[in-house]
Amino acid sequence: MKWKVAFFGLLAINMVIVVSLLCLILQPSSTKLPTPKAVKGATFLVHSSKEDVNILLNDYLKEKTKNSSLSYRVWIDDRVYVASQVPLFSRNVDLTVSFVPKIVKGGNLELRDPDLSLGEWQLPVNYTLSYLQKHAKLPDEVMIEPDAHRIYIDLANIQLKNGYRITAKEFDLEHDKIVFALTVPVK
To answer: Where are the transmembrane segments (predicted)?
Structure first.
């Protein structure tokens, strides 16, 4: 008779644990993504290549991060790459992170499926993204979310010169086809 009480007690404990885990997993993310600002104006589709986007991207980042202690560079090839050097045992060691880009709501970009390496070592995603989040001076429109294993780029709220806005329409790296919508505001 004691084994029945122990069995049902253990079953109840297991049910509570499973229900608790399901509640935690199924809760929505606490990260609030910004709402794109509505801009009235003329919209043009801009077709580009990876090479042209690399030039524009690094020029923008150079301006935004000129006072940062951690320098990095970004380039687009078969994936989106971010490279930097981190001090380790009085030496600078290469840190490389690559992502698969995906267009999300509002024409913004999400960089997912990170592949991380420090020198020749593969690193845990959470650790490296947390390090980048703490030490890399990023534009306000770039949000690193270590727990979600992604970087969110709020293109719709990046204000270019003269108030121009840009959103992503197509990001096909395999065929070197990148399309943006450029909105020129009118008064």
So the answer is: 6-26
CA distance 161 to 46: 16
- Residues 154 and 108: their CA atoms lie apart, in Å, by 5
Is the per-residue pLDDT at 21 higher than 70? Answer: no
Buried b (16+ CB within 10 A) or exposed e, 89-98: eeeeeebbbb
Which residues are CB-neighbours of 104 under 8 A, at least 6 positions away?
Answer: 110, 152
* Phi and psi torsions of 138, nearest 5°: -110, 155
Are 77 and 50 within 8 A, CB to CB? yes
Q: What is the pLDDT of residue 110?
A: 92
Report the alpha-carbon distance of residue 120 to residue 155 in Å, rounded.
32
> Do 180 and 45 touch, CB atoms closer than 8 A?
yes
Mind listing the pLDDT tens digit for each residue in 143-175? 888 888 888 888 888 877 788 888 899 988 999
For the whole model, what pTM was predicted?
Answer: 0.65
E strand or H helix at 153? strand 150-153
Q: Please name the residue ranges forming H helices in 27-109.
A: 50-64
Q: So what's the pLDDT on residue 94?
A: 83
Widest Cα–Cα separation across the chain: 83
